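Take our chain:
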Amino acid sequence: MWRVSIAFLMVFLFCAGFTAVAVATETVHLSVREQMPLQYGAADAVVRDLGRVGAEPRMRPFLTAAQVTALLPEGSRVMWLDSRTWDGEMVIDMRDRLTRGMFTLVSGRFPEKEGEAVVQEGVGPDVLDRVREHWTIVGTMAAVERSWYPRVVMLGWLPEQPGEVHWLVEAGPAGIGPDVVRRLEQAGLDVRTRAALLADDEGAGGHALPAPGFLGGAIVLLLVLLLLRPRGAVWWPVVAVSLGVGAGSAVAAWGPVGWLAGSDETPGAFDVPVPQVVTVAVVALLTALPGLLLTRRPPAE
């Protein structure tokens, strides 16, 4: 009986551990659909101006709002933003409806005039000191740990000339079709429409399991089961796998998601990568199978 108990525990821990890692990794990973409100707000498209046409090295002046709007369908409008995420800074009017979903105000208010700024909750004193040199902090926004998400958002102008200019686009009734995208690209603008990004995201699978650890765990589990040769009922692997998958999912749902995924990034919504979890369950069952076959007693003669 003790052999079955140890084997049951080994299969359970294998399934629970790798299920927790798989679920936590997928929860931390943000799909395009989850990223879009944080990056693009309610915009129908984002237009990026690199200051050149095609591969030409010669720089040209950045297009103005009127010039970009003229390339869009009637009824469209654009809003300028300056994103310096390598410095954690962004200039944008947080009150505009195009930014809906990008920021969550925790305290204070959004900037209403040039020289005012909002900082992420929990930023260090070095960031606060640097911000206070140029801006007045009027509010705090919820922290989002992503490399592309700003730590400081303000109204006004950053001291240095931007290397590229971004425009959030609210499309008119006609929308942004392929002909509009071609027209913008011919003017030297990079275009990312909401519809195209969501289409690319459809059918995207979950993150792969950590292959070396997973294969190593499966080999260790197989060797232990072959050594134990647990005798008893044949149903225990199914129960151990089912309980392990359930326990691993629960740990990822209510436990330290970032630690399990090995990431400091802010997790998204709880997400179970079904193909990876099924793989864990199938490998555990197949690993237990040799031990069961080796312990079958031959029929009495």
